[in-house]
Amino acid sequence: MAANSSIDPVDIGTLRTLVLVYDLQSFSAAAKRLDVNQSTISYAIERLRGALHDPLFVRGGNGVTATERCAALVAWARDMIVEIDGLASRVEFDPATAQGSVTISCNYHERQTLIPQFSTRLRAGAPKVRLVLLDAAGHGDVHLKQNQCDIVLGPVGIAGESFFRRHILTDHYVCVMDPANPLARGRIALSAYARAEHVFITHSGEWQPLYLEALKAREIEIEPVVSLPNHDSLERIITGTRLVATIPYHLARAMRGGLHVAALPFRVPISIDMYWSARTAKSGLHKWAPACWPRLRELAPPERGAGLQVQNKRPAPECGPLSGALPRRKREASEQVVEDVVENARDDHRGRQRQHPGHRDVADRGPLQAGAVGGHGARDA
Predict the structure, then answer these.
(1) How many CB atoms lie within 10 A of CB 351?
(2) Is the pTM of this model over 0.90?
(3) Is the model more confident about 73 or about 339?
């Protein structure tokens, strides 16, 4: 029988504590997250320090910094914890009797367009499972890496072999304005768009909309007349003014007000992806839950009179109001808007392999086909 090792007293709970301190870079924050005294965290780390003969963390500034050996140990510990959690998971899964929770980190766009149907299906299929939503606010990747959530949903890119990705839909930007705005009369030229009175959604300064980068690439800079931290009051701010806001198409379509929606004079795709980690990859609940996401064709526009103002019968629910009595030139311009927006909607179905600028290019192999991605990108599933 082998002699006792100095690491024999180290258990899975100690490793979980190590990973949490590493992620939060703070003993006190780890103690708060686990709802224990800070001395409990310190004791666990001291046991590891003695077993491994390494300080693991050194204090600096307002937190702690990991040593090289600590970083290597954390990488190993993550995989070990995932394997142990996988062994502890039930082999059989019955959603009707399953208990637990699904925590999703996402933004206003996803909460308005995807979460309602997801919640309805989750409740119908797994009535004892709780749904918890976190506001991503530009920190969805941090929520996932620190195990604060099970799923991140949104236009983000998360790198790492221990993360998985599934494409949900490709959205794009449109303009919303009061129906009396002169820009609502026909197709919007890029020069007219640049001169418009803009509303910016700043996302509390945590994330910059992708269309602003597209404008910079064209050497066009626009200044906001109004800046809002989120979309909550957007309809009320725009109504009765000449203000124009640039927001995702599916979000505009989900609004229940009377705003006119028009095609943007340039196209910027928004890839909405779902990410999860190896921690939940083997969980029966988290394998089943993705089936609750609505498909693109199920994100139907509101009924006539209940949302966007659409007054003609052409198949363009996101464009309006239009009138068959317009002069020929104006009618042709309006029809061109319709054709542009319909083509944009068709592009949604062809956009699964597009990635928006600024994120790691991860090949999409379809919503249900798994495979490893070269390098350090997330794995598609």
Answers:
(1) 20
(2) no
(3) 73
**Main-chain phi, psi angles of 239, to 5 degrees:** -55, 130
Rg of the chain on CA atoms, in Å: 25
Angstrom distance (rounded) from CA 172 to CA 227: 21
**pLDDT category, 259, cuts 50, 70, 90?**
very high
* Residue 90 exposed, middle or buried by CB count within 10 Å (0-12, 13-18, 19+): exposed
Cα torsion 148, 114, 137, 71: sign: positive
Cis check: omega of the bond before 55, within 30 degrees of 0: no
Residues with Cβ within 8 Å of 2's Cβ and at least 6 positions away in sequence, in order, are none
228 Cβ contact list (under 8 Å, min separation 6): 199, 200, 201, 202, 234, 237
Amino acid at 364: D
Determine the number of helices (DSSP H) and then strands (DSSP E) in the chain.
13, 12
pLDDT band at 298 (very low <50, low <70, confident <90, very high): low
Residue 184 pLDDT level (bands cut at 50, 70, 90): very high
What are the Cα distances from residue 230, in Å, to 121, 173, 226, 245? 27, 16, 12, 12
Confidence band, pLDDT 50/70/90 cuts, at residue 125: very high
- Give the H or E element holding residue 349: helix 328-350
d(Cα 240, Cα 19) in Å, to the nearest integer?
A: 53
| pLDDT, tens digit, 9 for 90 and up, residues 60-71 | 878 899 999 999
Among 355, 154, 177, 348, residue whose Cα is nearest residue 252 = 177
Q: Which of 183-187, 278-282, 349-353 is most confident?
A: 183-187
Q: Kindly state the helix (H) or strand (E) to which residue 190 belongs, with its residue range.
A: helix 190-195
Helix (H, G, I), strand (E, B), or coil: what is residue 270? strand
